[in-house]
TrEMBL record:
Keyword terms, alphabetized: Lipid transport, Lipid-binding, Transport
Keyword Transport applies: yes
Keyword Nucleotidyltransferase: no
Protein's name according to its UniProt entry: Oxysterol-binding protein
GO cellular component: cytosol; perinuclear endoplasmic reticulum; plasma membrane
PANTHER family: OXYSTEROL-BINDING PROTEIN, OXYSTEROL-BINDING PROTEIN-RELATED
Organism: Adineta steineri
């Protein structure tokens, strides 16, 4: 069955309300040191998306995964996969609003056809602690994760960490009989996927890659303009070998000068390893771009203001600098820097960019996530049916707040009535305590789904 959930709106029904007379600090000061995911925040601080929809944004640049699946060069594949993870960070910048907490049992589906088809299926599988399980099937790969966000208020900033690993499985390329240099996939159709349905089984036909998300830091909770950045390192590990890629985000300490701070904004550097041997290097700015550094000798990263210095370096110029996130991309390139990915926002014109600030800084991809679709039958648990999100989209904050409150109360009452542990409909806990997709959603039998959002 083909289900195209592609939507096309360029704008939300109403712009967001001006927050200048609201203080986020006055709301969350009661929550110092506590977990903000358990805390009800007034809807003016929400964006009209459920967290399950927000997580679907990670797949905007799925073409990088398609490309990674098609290459048989390990270093090139690591570049494409690392660039993909960088792209999943980029979509969070500027988005200083809280997505709605999904209700237990809420689902969200997104399916795209065309050159880079994918099918995203997610479910809120646990409420305390909140866990969102997701599964994405692409042409030659699957990506799954259990996202368990922990959001802490630390006085002047908010730190969000996401526990749980991301697992990417790519079908192995097998040489065809026609020519040894040409290669193709043995099995890559959806039917094969279904026969081979236990995705959790490690098989010789798949390469597995895993990583965890770095933490995100939201600044200026007390006063000033809210902004955020990622912190630390991440490690992308290939399960079947000792190969991995390690990305380090440049940090900005209080001691660094203002100019160093902006010069380091969102920059990262990293290496691809086989055991201890360096196989490759890369650098970039996660708000803008990813560059492979083809000559390892060029990768003499210094801890000074510029990301990478080598005589004859030139600036990263493919970006329209008015499209900046908060700072221009002043990355200094090495002679062998090669562009692998850049953010599509850099292709927007000034008018389009100005509009973004009125629409929660949604990207064109995010704008369509909550668009109503009529051509397809969705389960009643789909986030698109949440009235509180729809009210906020239309700028009706009072109705949104009332409906959000009603759903939260209803959820509490349901939890009190429940004697057994809640069983998710589309994911099952495995022996590692991870929720794994069962493939059943694909049957599209939704009659038994609860009418989660009705009154
Ligand atoms: C009210 C305001 C100030 C607080 C806003 C907090 C927002 C920005 C926080 C709360 C939960 C956070 C999310 C928690 C988990 C993940 C998964 C990770 O793979 C990418 C980042 C992402 C998607 C975070 C993005 C930022 C986030 C949405």
């Amino acid at each position: 069955m083909t289900v195209d959930l592609r939507a096309s709106r360029r704008i939300l029904p109403a712009p967001m309300i001006d927050r200048s007379s609201y203080s986020i600090f006055s709301v969350i000061k009661q929550a110092i040191g506590k977990d903000l995911t358990k805390f009800s925040i007034p809807v003016v601080w929400n964006e009209p998306l459920s967290f399950l929809q927000r997580l679907a944004e990670c797949i905007e640049y799925s073409s990088l995964l398609d490309q990674a699946a098609l290459t048989n060069k390990p270093v090139e594949r690591f570049h494409l996969l690392t660039a993909f993870i960088v792209s999943t960070l980029s979509t969070n910048l500027e988005r200083m609003s809280k997505p709605f907490n999904p209700l237990l049992g809420e689902t969200y589906e997104l399916k795209m056809e065309g050159d880079t088809p994918f099918h995203y299926i997610s479910e809120q599988v646990s409420h305390h602690p909140p866990v969102s399980a997701l599964y994405i099937r692409g042409q030659h790969w699957t990506l799954s994760a259990n996202v368990e966000p922990k959001v802490k208020f630390q006085g002047t900033n908010v730190v969000a960490v996401s526990e749980g690993r991301w697992i990417l499985r790519i079908k192995k390329i097998v040489p065809t009989s026609r020519s040894a240099s040409q290669s193709s996939f043995q099995s890559c159709t959806e039917e094969d996927d279904e026969q081979n349905s236990n995705v959790n089984n490690h098989s010789d036909e798949e390469d597995e890659y895993t990583w965890t998300s770095p933490s995100i830091l939201v600044h200026n909770i007390l006063f000033g303009r809210l902004w955020c950045e990622f912190q630390g390192e991440f490690d992308l590990q290939h399960t079947q070998s000792n190969q991995r890629s390690v990305l380090t985000i440049k940090t900005q300490s209080w001691l660094s000068s203002q100019s160093t701070k902006t010069a380091n904004m969102f920059k990262y550097t990293g290496f691809i390893y086989d055991g201890k041997d360096k196989l490759g290097a890369f650098h970039g700015n996660y708000g803008h771009c990813y560059y492979a550094i083809d000559n390892l000798e060029d990768a003499q990263f210094k801890s000074s203001s510029s990301s990478c210095c080598s005589a004859g370096g030139h600036n990263c110029i493919h970006i329209n600098t008015t499209a900046t996130v908060s700072s221009p991309c002043d990355l200094i390139l090495t002679p062998s820097s090669r562009l692998i990915w850049f953010r599509s926002l850099s292709l927007m014109n000034d008018n389009e960019l100005a509009l973004r600030s009125q629409y929660y800084f949604f990207t064109p991809f995010a704008l369509c996530l909550n668009e109503q679709v009529s051509s397809v039958v969705l389960p009643l648990t789909d986030s698109r049916y949440r009235q509180d999100i729809q009210y906020l989209e239309k700028g009706n904050t009072d109705a949104a707040a009332a409906e959000k409150h009603r759903l939260e109360e209803q959820q509490r009452a349901d939890a009190r009535k429940r004697d057994n542990e809640h069983q998710p409909l589309w994911f099952k806990k495995d022996e590692n305590e991870e929720y794994v997709y069962t493939n059943e959603y694909d049957q599209r039998q939704f009659n038994h789904c609860p009418n989660l959002f009705s009154s």
